[in-house]
Amino acid sequence: VVTLSLLMYPVLRSLALQLHSAITGSYVSGTHSIAFINCLNEQIAKDIARAIMDKKLAAYVNIMPKSSALYFWKGELEESTEILLIVKTRTSKIGELSNYVRSIHPFEIPEIISLPIDQGNPLYLKWIEENVPRD
Predict the structure, then answer these.
(1) Contacting residues for 29 by C-beta, under 8 A, at least 6 apart
(2) Interhelix angle for 94-104 vs 42-54, to 10°?
(3) What pTM value is reported for the model?
């Protein structure tokens, strides 16, 4: 029973958040998230962004210009330029988004990091909700 309860927690939390939001009309912190995904170049970034949008895994994707990056890879310090995707979506879609991006991304270990949205313009957050289908 405890194991089943733990496995159901994300589903139960999602339903509770939806109910709270519907009753109060207020935004529940963490309902939406921003994901950061680094790409090797602009073409790959555009291809991944379009694929994310085609699958309706996000409402909005920014493609940020080149930035310099320093990182350790296989024990060596590397330096490169990368393009950053900033993805706005439902928190409930982060797992699916991450799995999908890993399946199409050319990096062996793509950077996919998400942060919950605490607060924001209520109309914008509602717009995200309207453009990313529920699970």
Answers:
(1) 116, 117, 118, 119
(2) 130
(3) 0.81
When divided into structural domains, the chain yields a total of: 2
27: which 2 tokens? 């935004």
Of the candidates 107, 115, 108, which has an alpha carbon nearest to the alpha carbon of residue 39?
A: 107
78/41 same-domain check: yes
**Domain boundaries, position 102:** 31-131
List, for residues 1-38, the tens digit of each pLDDT value. Answer: 556 665 666 667 667 766 766 677 678 889 999 999 99
Q: Do residue 61 and residue 98 come from a single domain?
A: yes
Spatial separation of the C-alpha atoms in residues 65 and 75, rounded to whole Å: 28
Angstrom distance (rounded) from CA 61 to CA 49? 6
